[in-house]
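Supplementary Note 3. Input sequence used for the single-chain structure prediction.
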Amino acid sequence: MNSKTRKGSCLCGAVQVTATPKSNSVGACHCVMCRKWGGGPLLAAECGTAVSFEGSEQISIYNSSTWAERGFCRKCGTHLFFRLAEGAHYSIPVGLFDGANEWEFTGQVFIDQKPSFYSFAEKTKNLTKNEIFNWHAGE
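The predicted structure, written as discrete structure tokens, is reproduced below.
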């Protein structure tokens, strides 16, 4: 499947998202912050900057580090995005989008922080924390 514009919303519908993911790939982040944020790994689509929101007055931002922030609906608490502070690169939780069966699970990051009590059956590209930071430093 080629990348196409997708629509979705938070749980209560106060925030609507329109985005064009870079592909139909879904990645999992196992970092401590993502697991604390959602109770498990973040499953997200990389959307770059091709993202817009309706109901943006209902979005609260949490600066989770010096280099990234997370957005959520202030009415229902739904996780809306992970965004890099520089370049506005968005990762959108794939569960927000309509069309749940059109995705392919292709990668995992912070694999060295994944707890041992769960694992995924799919064979994916796996990157450690250091590999991720080195990759972003080279951009």
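The two ends are 26 Å apart (CA to CA). Residues 129-137 form the longest helix (9 residues).
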